[in-house]
Amino acid sequence: MTDLANGQASTNDEADPTKTWHKTACVLCSANCGVEVRLDGREITRVRGNKSHVASKGYTCEKALRINHYQNARSRLTSPMKRMPDGSYIEVDWDTAISEVAAGLAAVRAEHGSERLMYYGGGGQGNHLCGAYGSATQRALGITRRSNALAQEKTGESWVEGRMFMAHTHGEFSEAEVSVFLGKNPWHSHGFDEARRVLKEIAADESRSMVVIDPRRTETADLADYWLQVKPGTDAFLLSALIAVMFDENLVATQWLTDNANGVSDVRAVFSTVPVADFADRCGIDEERIRETARRMARADSVSVYEDLGIEMGPHSTLVSYLQRAMWVLLGSYGRPGAMSAHTSMANLFNYAATGKEPADPVTGGAVINGLIACNEIADGILSDHPDRTRAMIVESGNPVHSLAESDKFRRAMRSLDFSVVIDVAMTETALEAEYVLPASSQYEKAETTFFGAGFPENKFHIRRPILDGLGGTLPEAEIHSRLVRELGALDGIDIEGLRAAAVEGEHAFTQAFMGAAGSNKNVAGLGAVVLYETLGTTLPVGMEGAAAMWFSAQRTAMAYPDQVRAAGHEGDGPDLGWSLFNALMSNDDGVVYTRHEYSDSFDLLGTPDQKINMAIPELLEEVANLSEAPTDYTSEEFPFVLSAGERRSFTANTIMRDPAWRKRDPEGALRLSPTDASSLGIGDGARVRITTPGGMAVAVAEVTDTMMEGHVALPNGLGLGYSPAGGEPEVTGVSPNELTTTDWRDPIAGTPWHKHVPARIEAIAP
Ligand SMILES: Nc1nc2c(c(=O)[nH]1)N[C@H]1C(S)=C(S)[C@@H](COP(=O)(O)OP(=O)(O)OC[C@H]3O[C@@H](n4cnc5c(=O)[nH]c(N)nc54)[C@H](O)[C@@H]3O)O[C@H]1N2
Ligand SMILES: Nc1nc2c(c(=O)[nH]1)N[C@H]1C(S)=C(S)[C@@H](COP(=O)(O)OP(=O)(O)OC[C@H]3O[C@@H](n4cnc5c(=O)[nH]c(N)nc54)[C@H](O)[C@@H]3O)O[C@H]1N2
Ligand code: SF4
Ligand SMILES: [Mo]
Predict the structure, then answer these.
(1) pTM
(2) In angstroms, what is the span from residue 284 Cα to ligand 2's centroid?
(3) 190 CB less than 6 Å from ligand 3?
(4) Which CATH architecture has domain 155-346+620-625?
C-alpha cells in the first residue's frame, strides 16, 4: 500500500507552521491549476502556482489567489439542516439526518417507484468524487433519472460527438498552427492548461494564427489574427459559409477523408447549395474575410477548435457543434500534433454507448442525452401533472435554482416535490428550497479530484490530499453516501469485513477478494465507490479515504490502455499495472501523467465500429439545407436587444464564490453595452439601467464599452447570490441571470438554453 505520511507539504519550516507550503489545486474553474498555499490556522493566507504541477506548471490566473473566500465563507454549513412546517430550518444531528433522509427517499420509492426519483449534480469545477459516491446512493435506490449542468451546455456537443466519433475530442492548443475559439473566451474561462500563456505565445508567433469568432471584442479577440465579429446567433450561417468555401475552393483533404471518414459525399452535396454571399451577409462578415480564413485554416498543418457557451447557448447550437467539427474533419485535422483528437479518461463524463438509442424522457418527451435529462425540462416535468413526474430529488454540488433557466420555476418545482435533499458546502439558493440540507466538507478538507482532463497524446490526473481537517459538523461525501447506502440496507449481503481484511493483507489479496466479490454479487460493482471506501479506504492515510473510489478507475484505465499507461512510466501487467497507477496517483501531489499515446493511436480511441469518422448526420444536414429559411434575428420592437446572460469575467466563478468581497473590481457585475446604444438610450457609464426580458426584470449598473457590438448587451454569470457577511439576513449583490431567462427558450434537439441570446429591453433609470 502507499505511504502518504511524507509529502504533505512541499517545503517545511519546523519553527513556523504558517511558513509551510501545502500542495493542492484551485477549484474555481475546470483547469484546476496546481497551487501551493500557506495556512494560518484555518485561513489560507498565501497562494502561488505550483511549478512542479504536471499540467499547470506554476500557472494560475488572478482568481486562485482568493480561494480563501471559498474555504472560509460565512455561508458554510456546519450542521445538517431540516425544514420545519413553518419553513424555518433547525439543526439536526447526523444520525437523525441520515435516517430521515434515507427514510424519506425510500418512502417516495415505495409509493411511486424508483423511476420517480432524480439525482441532480455530482460535481462542480473542482470536485467530482461526490459524483462517484453519489452513484452508489443512486444504485441503492434504483435511481435512473439523472441530470446535471452538462445538460445545459455540453449535451448538444455530445449528441454530435456520439454520432461522429463515439468519443470526446479535444484540441492541442499549445501546438496548433491555427487555433479557433468559437463563442469561447479562454482568456477568462480557460478550459485548457496555461490558457493565457498559450494565447500570448500564439499571438507572438508569426507562423501560427488565432481565429476568434465572437460578437464581442474579448481579451482573446484582441490577441487574434482573425477576429470574426459574427452577429449574435448567426454562427450557423458563418460556419456553413466557411465549409461551402472549403468545398468550393478545393481546400478539403480529399485523400485523407477517403481513408478516414464516411459520408463525405452527402456533406459535399448539401454544402454545394449554400449561398456563400448571402450567408456572409446574414452573419455580418465580409465574404472575402470568410474565404481568407478558410484558406488560412486549410494551409495549416493543424487546426484545433474550442467551442463554448457563445454557441452552445444560442440559436442552432447543436448544428453549430456539428459544423465546427465537420470543418476540421474536412481539413483532416485529426490525430496529429496540434490537431484535434479523442483522448483517454479516468472516468467518463460522457458515455456514448447508447448514442441514438436513448428513449425520450417519458414526462416531457425531451431528448435524454448521455443519460441526462435536459436541464430546461426538469422543472416543467416536476410541475406537470404527468403520473411519471419526478417526486423526489437529491441535489449534490449543484445550485440549479440559481444556475438553471427561470429560477422561479425551479424554486416552485423544488417546493412541489414530496421529498428533497441538497448536499452542499453552503446554504445555497437551492438548499433554501430543500427539506434537508447535508453539509459537505470543503474541497480543501478531503481527498478530491476532477475528471475533466482531456489531454492527448498525454493525459494527466491529480488527486489532491486535504490540507485542512473537516470543518466541524461537516462530512466528506464519501462518508455521507456510505452512511446513506448502509442505512438503505444496500450493503447487506456484501462481505465488507472480508474485503477489509483482504485490504489489510495487501494488494494482491485485495484484488482477488474484490474481483471475486464483484463476480458473485453485482451490487459490489454497482455500489463500488462505497464498497471501496469501506474496505480499501480504511487502509489509506487519514484524510485520503475518499480517494478509494479511484482504485477502480485506475484498474479500469490500466486494463483499457495498458501500453499507454506503461508508456507513461507505470509498471506491471494486469491488476499490478492498475495498482502501480493507483499508488502513483495517491503519492503524487503534483499530479501524474497516466497515459502517453503516439499520435497514430488516435483512431483507436474512436468508438465508431470501423474507427472512421462519421461525417453525415441526416437531421443536421437537413437543417443546413433549410438554413436559408431560418431567421437571423430574434429581437422585436418590444425586446430590441440581444442579452448574453452570464458572461465569464475576471472575478466570476459560477456560484462557488458567494462572498461578493472576493471581487476586486466591478463589484455588482455591470451590464455591458456599446457606446452607440448607450448614447441613444441616454445611459452613462456607471448609471443604473433596467433590463426587461420575456422572463423578468432586473436593475444593473451600466458599463459602456466599445468591446460590445451595437444591439448586444451582456451580464456576468455567478452574481445575484445571497450572502451575509455578518451572519444575518443575506444580501443579494448583482443580477442573478436566471431571473431573466425562461425554460422554453432552448435548442430543439438537445434542449440546451439560449442564455447567450435572450431578447431584452434596456432602459435608463432616472438617477
Ligand atoms: N472566470 C470564469 N471562468 C470560468 C467560469 C466562470 O464562472 N468564471 N465558468 C466555467 C464554465 S462552467 C464554463 S462552461 C466556461 C464557459 O466559458 P466561455 O463559454 O468561454 O464563457 P462565456 O463568457 O460565457 O461565453 C463566451 C463568449 O461567447 C460570446 N458570445 C455571445 N453570443 C455569441 C454568439 O452568438 N456567437 C458567438 N460566436 N459567440 C457569442 C460572448 O461574447 C463570450 O465572449 O467557463 C469556465 N471558466
Ligand atoms: N444564465 C446563465 N446560467 C448559467 C450559465 C450562464 O452562462 N448563463 N452558465 C451555466 C454553466 S456553463 C454551468 S456549468 C452552471 C454551473 O452551475 P452549477 O452546476 O449549479 O454549479 P456551480 O455554480 O459550480 O456550483 C456548484 C455547487 O457546489 C457547491 N460546492 C462547492 N464545493 C463543494 C463540495 O466540495 N461538495 C459539495 N457537495 N458541494 C460543493 C457550491 O457551493 C455550489 O452550490 O451554471 C449555468 N448557468
Ligand atoms: S480559476 Fe481556473 S485558471 Fe484560474 S487559477 Fe483557478 S483553476 Fe487556474
Ligand atoms: Mo459550465
Answers:
(1) 0.97
(2) 34
(3) yes
(4) 3-Layer(aba) Sandwich (3.40)
